């Protein structure tokens, strides 16, 4: 994988860890949830889209792809925690990217993947 993606993933991962530590233990916090989608989840999915649709198609190794997906799921965990929900599974970055292309909205993608908040 290109160094530019590695650096960006490292930053997104570090920010997700710091975010998890600073979450308000008294949900719901919809404003913070939107901030997490905008600052972490969206950029993580966008990085995958960029790598797959940019001028040169990036091939992720198995470990790199797992890392990317883990970071995206860390952001979704933080998002759900803002509503007092603990997610039981993991979500596919490819599915998230396809939904983002269809909806053009990170919030819609998070809601469709996780069901949080309940509608």
UniProtKB/TrEMBL annotation:
Residues 1-31 are annotated as: Disordered. Residues 4-118 form the DUF8055 domain. InterPro entries: DUF8055 (IPR058368). Residues 1-23 have a biased composition (Basic and acidic residues). This is DUF8055 domain-containing protein.
